[in-house]
Predict the structure.
Amino acid sequence: VPNLVAAIGAPGVESYSVLMSLPRDLHAAEAFVGTLRELIELDLNVLLFRHDPARGFGRHERIDVWWDGHEHTGKFMLTLAGMIRSGERWRSAEIRLLVIADQDWDADAARVAIDAVIADSRVPAEGMLLTPLTEEQSFQDRMRQQSSATDLVIMGMPAPHPGESAEFLTRTGAKLRPWGSCLLVRSSRSQSDTRL
C-alpha cells in the first residue's frame, strides 16, 4: 500500500489520505499494522473505517466527532463529517463536536477554541465541552452516555506502539465495538489546527 500511494497520481499531484477498513480477524495483523505505521511515517491522513453490519448507519441522523482537544485532528475530522453530510442520505444529519475538558482547562477559553475550530472548518456543528472525567467514569462510559444513539462516530486514532500488532487491533476493536459504525482518523502532521 505505501508503494501504491507513492506511485498514484499525475506528476505534481500527491495523495494525502488513505482510507482502509479495520480488519475483523487478526491473521494478518502484523502486516496491517506495519502498513499503518508506514503510512503514518509518510505523513498521510490515515482513516480506518469499521462498519457495523447490524447497525449500519442507523437513520443517518447524527454524526458525533470526538476530539481530545490536543491532537491536530479537530478541524480535519469536522471537514470529513461535513463531506459525509453532503451525501444525499446524510443531508439532514446533525454534527456534534464533543470535547471532554481536562481538569486544568479554562472552560471559557476552551469554548472559544471549540467555536474557532467549528468556524475554521466551515461545517455547521454543535460544539459540546463536556465536564472532565472522574475516577469513577471512563472515556468509554462517557461515550456510551453521549453517543449510544449516534449513527456514525468519528474519533482520533493513536499510532500503534512499537512492537504491537494484534494487540493494537484487539484494543481498537474492543474500543469501537459498542458504537456501531466508526471512522478513526490519524491526520497528517502538516494539518494545522487549533488546540485547546
